[in-house]
Amino acid sequence: MIVKMMKYDIVLFAPERDRFIESLRQTGMVDITTSGWEPSESDRNLLLDIEARTKALAAFDAVAQDATTAVKVDADKVFATYAEAQSVIAAAKSEIARLEKSVEEWTPWGDFDVEKLAALAQAGIVVRYFVTSTSTYNKEVAEWGEQFTHSLISDADSQARFVIIGDGSEQLDIDAQELKAPTMSLKQLTAAVAQAQAQIDEAEQTIVACAAHRDVVAAELSALKRELENVRISASADKQAEGMLLVLEGWAEQANAAKVDALLDASPNTVYIKSNPTPEDNTPVKLKNNRYARIFELVGNMYALPKYGTIDLTPFFAPFYMLFFAICLCDAGYGSVILAAGIALLLKGGKKLRQAALFSTVCGVASVAFGFAANSFFGMTISDAPMFEDFKFLDFQNQFFYASLGIGIFQILFGMAINIVMTTVTYGIKNALGSIGWFLLIFSSCLAGVAGMVGIEWYGFSSVAYMTTVGVALVLMLLLNKPSFNIFANFGIGLWDTYNNITGLLSDLLSYIRLFAIGLSGGVLALVFNSLAMGLTGLDAGIEHFTVGTLFQIVGASVILLIGHGINLFMSTISSFVHPMRLTFVEFFKNAGFEMGTRAFEPLKNE
Q: Domain spans of the chain?
């Protein structure tokens, strides 16, 4: 459900701005419109400061400090110490990457003494380093031996590494790549890596020490955010009377309007006009759903909030999403893993992960139930167990193809019904006549198809009742779809809509077949991994005598099962999360007439 809002046009004395905004923060009930704000150079620096301190708090949280110190310190000093430590870590990691590349490059050459090589160079004996393919070296080595003094160092990895010894002035035209002479030996390189790692360890300990003062940085971040809010409000406000008056646009929940009125009435040098939002307003959106639907706001928010004045589709798509997730996963064993992960997050994840934990839990419950009904537990057939042999399971492979189409038709019709109701309530029933025609055509055709299969002749495809319904639907679709247009324009628009709707509905309907395909593919892979585990270890023939070899067979089968089902569970979970989302955002939202909102309701408040 979308929370009802009230609009406030507020005029205040400019010098009262900071006091007024602070009073709004104390209540935490008013959202001030700041759209159209363009940051200046100083504003950009403020944004960078906020981003930097946000990252600092994330780094402090990552070191998992149990408690913060009560000693008061300067926030700027803590942040500067943290920033310097991060700079040291970044530089040391870059240096380690460079050194490790040198170690990898020079390890095949063996250890060497750089000082001795430098002394030889000063004496006029220069060692030059080359690398080429082993085949090239073997082909050219005889000719090279006649031209200069060389020695093969290594031929590992099909690469010949050799040195040429001379005075350094030789012009060498050979099929080999010359390397820059090393400046550090392998021992020196390894020591430099260890030294850089020690710098990282020391800097990380510095960050741990800074994390003990997390609260002062968090307080500074809150102050910077308040400063940014003040800047945005002031910059986006309409200034009148040579800047002496500020005109602000504010929003509050209708339920809190009386409290906001009292606050504004008590505010000196402030006047306001309260009104209901209009369709032209950029009204912020806040959702308020029951406990079950609130879980699935996580999914809807990945797409967009609904536009104010329309309908929140979260309660309507939530049951479908949970069902689609279960169908795609289609295994009680995999569902139990998702369920266990959700329960673990509920117990250990804290408030931040509560919504994700509840989402995993309800999807896990649905997956366990549907997977059991589909007779699958980690790819094994549940009905093979004696206690379930009389239970009537769903034959997913042979029965669910048409069931997936039926579910798709039902959700499409459900979305169209929501669209018809919303259009009727908002604009009147005459603007919904075209949609009603399409709904009647699809619904009556489905009803006639079912009637034909069960032998009900009075509403078959050739019955008078069906033909009458189709006739009414065609009139609504082709002649009454645009009440403000004449009949000829309506007919042309209706024909064009017919082409678009037929192709669109066919595409939408076929998308639901993927529910069957994804569920079937995951089940087949689970069976394959079970067969591999049993077949490769010989356990498919059974265990006649338990020996030490049998133990190795069990361990081997367990490893194959763990890896195989782990991969399958990972891929199936991703598919089960993404495809229902696609069906929701593309098929259901489109047929339900979903309209996007532009911004969420974010009242000013003290953190």
A: 75-102+191-211, 113-181, 314-591
